[in-house]
Amino acid sequence: MDLKGKTIAVTGASGMIGVYICRSLLRAGATVVGVVRNPEKAAFLAAEGVTFRKADLADTAALTRAFDGCDAVIANAAMYVAMKSMSAWAEHEKANLDGTRNVFDAAHKAGVKRVVQISTFGIYKWSILRTLNEESPQLDGKRRQGGPYRASKQASEHMAWDMSASLGLDLTTLRPTAVYGARDDNTMRPIYKLLRLPVLPLPSISFPFVYAGDVADAVVGALRNDASIGQAYNVGGAGHQVADFLKAVVNAAGHGPKVLGLPMPVRIRIDNSKAERDIGFRNRSPEEALAEIIAEDPPRSAR
Q1: Cβ-based neighbour number of residue 25 at 10 Å
Q2: Does domain 7-183+209-237+269-284 match CATH 3.40.50.720?
Q3: What gap in Å lies between CA 200 and CA 209, rounded to an integer?
Q4: How do residues 217-248 score in pLDDT, each as one tens digit?
Q5: From CA 258, how far away is CA 195, in angstroms rounded?
Q6: How much is the CA Rg of the chain, to the nearest whole Å?
Q7: How high is the mean pLDDT of the chain?
C-alpha cells in the first residue's frame, strides 16, 4: 500500500506507542485518524496533523463511525497493569479481548479490510534455552497462563486471526518486546526515579528492549508491503543487560547513580530476521533511542 493520500485509523493514539505510530504514518504521507476516548490526552498530536475521533473500545457503533472512510486500522489500544488481582483479569479481558472483538467487528462494518494489530512477544512461553521466533510455543491465554496481560494478549491475537479469516480482513500482527519511549509510565518513568539514587547495585539479566519509534516504523513497513498480510512478526530489541540499559539512561540524562551491575547467565533472546527482511524493521541502539526520548521527555518530568 502506498500510504500517500491514504487514511489510517490508530486506536489508542494517545498512548505511548500510539503517538509514535501516528508520527511514523504522518512522515509516510498518510492522513492519520486517532481513535481515542480522550483527545485532550494527546492534543499536541492535533498540531502535528492528527485528526481525532472519539470512541471507546466497548462501543462498536462509535468505533465503526470512527473507522468510516479509512483505508486501514492499526489495532494498537490495549491495557497493561502490573498486577494479578481478579479485577486486573476483568479489566485486561475487557480491554484486550472484548476491545479486540469490537475493533475488528467495527473495521468490517466500516468496510476496512487492512488491519495491523500490535500484539506482544509476551504471548510466547519464554525460555532461556532457545531464541524466540514466530513459530515458538505460545501460552494458553484461555487458561490464563502468564498473568492478565500476557494471557489476554495471547487470546486477543488468536481471536484476531480467527475474526480476520471469518470477516475477510487482511491482517498483520507485530509482536514487540519490552517497549520504551517518551511519556512511558511502564519503563522510563520508573527508571527516571532511580536517577535520584547515588548508587544502584543491580543483579542483571539480558532482556530485549525495543524503542517505540522502531515499532512504529515497523507498522509503516507492514502497510507498505502487501506480502506482510497474513504474517506475524517479532519486532524486538537485541538482548541488553538491564544494568547496561540503565547505564545508557544515566549517560543520556547526564546524571544519575553509579550502576553496579552483576550480570547473570540468564538471557531472553528474540529473532527479528523475518521483520528485518519483509518490513524493514530496524532496531536502534539504546544510546540513539534514549537521546531522542530524553530530548522530548526529560527526567525532570517524572519528578
Answers
A1: 29
A2: yes
A3: 20
A4: 999 999 999 999 999 999 998 888 899 999 99
A5: 9
A6: 19
A7: 93
